């Protein structure tokens, strides 16, 4: 969704337009943006309804209305995640989905029991998440007995098997979303458990690619949308001053080779840099778009650059490609179409003698037009939303993109 309440094309829709399969597999929230359009993330039932009516080929998730977080049957169903009417239609086979809900179903799909041209909707027999919310004291990793429910690696392999039946390729978003919950709750035990489960899911994806595809035709990206909890060393952040403002930190405490100590310094999302791993087709494009180099962590890239690469440039053979030795970020380019051919990216004028020369006049005009296009797009979106006029907001947005402002 745009800021103005207008539906924007998501990754799965772009993949389907290219004749590819698309799906999501998750234990929490993020993949909804790959499958639905809603201004309110808390409207869970509406989001599920849109996903049910979408062109997706696969949905795997937690959130079964008949089970609690310990894999126990509820006395009264909980329809927080799906409307009762929708669940009835889904489970009774009245919708265009092959519906499964048992652990054995997940295992069968992971073992290759899938068919081409089938749509799969698979709900794990569990409440809100797979393992994170199970009953227990969380005194040490796995000190609380795991509930008998499928894990993310099994879901990952099953999802790849199902979508991999498409000879034209596929797009899939797989998330270990409960890691976010452990950060909000400052729970290191569950954080370790969820992270290890996610790491095993990555291993499963790598194994699938090397067995069923190749790195020449498949790209795997492993990253996060944000960090949560500000997890760091024990007593690392001063309590009397703002470390971000003062740029000061305490030395980490704890003797070498002893049990690691830690501290949580937030209960919310933070602006910490997050890891970004990638391998396969398109990897060189990512390297070429690095925005800079951190002295400790190495090269870094803006998340919006990744989005533009994945969403726009890689879908077309005619899309602009960075040079081999490029180390600067290029402005995003819209996907080419009959009335929207790729244009040269906007470049900032170089400081010094070129900054005020006439040859940079075009860049200045482009900047001004970008601002104008962005403003016009905003006004047009408002006018359309209020019913005053019907306008092509997408075309105006593309205009803003072409001059490098969006």
TrEMBL record:
<keyword id="KW-0472">Membrane</keyword>
<feature type="compositionally biased region" description="Basic and acidic residues">
    <location>
        <begin position="338"/>
        <end position="353"/>
    </location>
</feature>
<dbReference type="GO" id="GO:0004035">
    <property type="term" value="F:alkaline phosphatase activity"/>
</dbReference>
<keyword id="KW-1133">Transmembrane helix</keyword>
<feature type="binding site">
    <location>
        <position position="175"/>
    </location>
    <ligand>
        <name>Mg(2+)</name>
    </ligand>
</feature>
<keyword id="KW-0479">Metal-binding</keyword>
<keyword id="KW-0597">Phosphoprotein</keyword>
<feature type="compositionally biased region" description="Basic and acidic residues">
    <location>
        <begin position="1"/>
        <end position="16"/>
    </location>
</feature>
<dbReference type="Pfam" id="PF00245">
    <property type="entry name" value="Alk_phosphatase"/>
</dbReference>
<dbReference type="InterPro" id="IPR017850">
    <property type="entry name" value="Alkaline_phosphatase_core_sf"/>
</dbReference>
<keyword id="KW-0460">Magnesium</keyword>
<feature type="region of interest" description="Disordered">
    <location>
        <begin position="1"/>
        <end position="22"/>
    </location>
</feature>
<keyword id="KW-0812">Transmembrane</keyword>
<feature type="transmembrane region" description="Helical">
    <location>
        <begin position="361"/>
        <end position="382"/>
    </location>
</feature>
<feature type="region of interest" description="Disordered">
    <location>
        <begin position="319"/>
        <end position="359"/>
    </location>
</feature>
<comment type="similarity">
    <text>Belongs to the alkaline phosphatase family.</text>
</comment>
<feature type="binding site">
    <location>
        <position position="226"/>
    </location>
    <ligand>
        <name>Zn(2+)</name>
    </ligand>
</feature>
<keyword id="KW-0378">Hydrolase</keyword>
<feature type="binding site">
    <location>
        <position position="184"/>
    </location>
    <ligand>
        <name>Zn(2+)</name>
    </ligand>
</feature>
<keyword id="KW-0862">Zinc</keyword>
<dbReference type="InterPro" id="IPR001952">
    <property type="entry name" value="Alkaline_phosphatase"/>
</dbReference>
<feature type="binding site">
    <location>
        <position position="30"/>
    </location>
    <ligand>
        <name>Mg(2+)</name>
    </ligand>
</feature>
<feature type="binding site">
    <location>
        <position position="225"/>
    </location>
    <ligand>
        <name>Zn(2+)</name>
    </ligand>
</feature>
<protein>
    <submittedName>
        <fullName>Alkaline phosphatase</fullName>
        <ecNumber>3.1.3.1</ecNumber>
    </submittedName>
</protein>
<dbReference type="GO" id="GO:0046872">
    <property type="term" value="F:metal ion binding"/>
</dbReference>
<feature type="binding site">
    <location>
        <position position="180"/>
    </location>
    <ligand>
        <name>Zn(2+)</name>
    </ligand>
</feature>
